[in-house]
Specification:
By secondary structure, the chain is α+β, with helices and mostly antiparallel strands. The chain is 21% helix and 35% strand. The protein has 8 helices and 19 strands. Strands 10-11-12-9-3-13 form a 6-stranded mixed β-sheet. Strands 14-17-16-15-18-19 form a 6-stranded antiparallel β-barrel.
Length: 351
């Protein structure tokens, strides 16, 4: 259970709690449409306790970690981070994580539901290496702040120690409590994270709300994820998916040297394309269920992996994400997702 799950109950009957990404959290505080509106046009404040953290330390940590993830963690500047995949030997995506270089150690962050499998994968490659892995998810938690007014709210709360670039970490102290301000390495999402000791989360939360932030639950975050076109491990990304098919080129570094799955990644990179591409669909009528087939006429060209009826600026929109064989779509052929007419739209989806 995240720290915010208990705090959410203080908002009364309107706050609904439940499971998201492997942890108990607040799903919505009030109207998910209003909460999404805060993320798009104001400042949303949200629990990130559903994202766990591992610490990687030891003399061999730099070389060792760089050989196990898809991005270049070896050359990260201190107090900076990037987004990574963990791949198998066939180049298929197993997990994703953010890696932050903190000097004498790395912090790896991912959904709580992935933390155990990430740790298990990494530990099997500690052979004669001076590397230790620890789970600090219960000690160090996070609050997210996002939207065009995010920096204004952080400054008003006294929690912005300086300008941050994507992936940068700045440490600060506020009312005698230490914290870190982290700029999301995933630029299209553009979150700010505040890391703090779990026992201090309520104090930081109240300060951000008092400074003008609006409480946002996981349902609005999920809607935002779909609009941004960001795939989730285990939802949109199964055991068959290749990195280039997700459209997340920022998770790859083609000059870093050897890592697990690199041969397949580079073979696809030289070929220039994949057969199935993660895509967005605007659907007429109700959003199709996950697993629904996408058809061009009578020809199956893909399937839906995520979908939702999303209230965008007061208007309900049916949105779906999924992998499509784009080269198999005949020109001017009507598409159908779950039996309803659908149109391919660029990611991120704009309204």
């Amino acid at each position: 259970m995240t720290s915010m799950n208990t705090l959410g109950r203080k908002f009364g009957l309107q706050a609904v709690t439940g499971e998201y990404a492997g942890a108990e959290t607040v799903l919505r505080f009030n109207s998910p449409g209003e909460e999404l509106n805060a993320l798009r046009h104001g400042c949303g404040v949200f629990d990130l306790g559903w994202r766990g953290k591992l610490v990687v330390s030891g003399e061999d940590r730099v070389r060792w970690l760089n050989g196990l993830v898809s991005n270049n963690t070896r050359d990260l500047a201190q107090d900076s981070g990037n987004y990574n995949f963990i791949l198998n030997a066939q180049g298929r995506i197993q997990n994703d994580l953010l890696a932050f270089q903190r000097g004498e150690f790395y912090i790896l962050e991912s959904e709580v539901g992935q933390i155990a499998s990430i740790r298990e994968f990494l530990e099997q490659y500690i052979i004669m290496d001076d590397v230790e892995i620890g789970d600090i998810s219960g000690k160090l938690t996070s609050i997210g702040v996002a939207g065009p007014r995010a920096e204004e709210v952080l400054r008003s709360a006294g929690l912005n120690p300086g300008q941050t670039a994507p992936g940068q970490v700045l440490d600060g102290s506020w009312k005698g409590m230490g914290f870190s301000l982290v700029r999301d390495p995933i630029e299209v999402r553009n979150w700010h994270e505040l890391w703090m000791a779990a026992e201090n989360v309520e104090t930081f939360w109240n300060a951000l709300i008092a400074a003008g932030g609006q409480a946002v639950g996981a349902q609005a975050l999920e809607w935002q994820r779909i609009l941004l076109g960001l795939p989730r491990i285990g939802i949109d990304t199964g055991e068959r998916e290749l990195p280039q098919g997700t459209g997340q080129a920022y998770a790859l570094h083609h000059a870093k040297g050897c890592y697990i799955g690199q041969e397949i990644v580079e073979r696809i990179h030289s070929r220039g394309h994949v057969h199935r591409q993660f895509s967005g669909l605007i659907v007429e009528g109700k959003a199709p269920e996950r697993g629904s087939k996408v058809l061009a006429g009578e020809q199956e060209i893909g399937e839906v992996t995520s979908s939702a009826n999303i209230v965008v600026d007061g208007v309900s929109r049916s949105i779906a994400l999924g992998y499509l064989r784009r080269e198999a779509i005949p020109k001017d052929e009507q598409l159908y997702a779950g039996g309803s007419p659908a149109t391919i739209t660029p990611l991120p989806i704009q309204f």
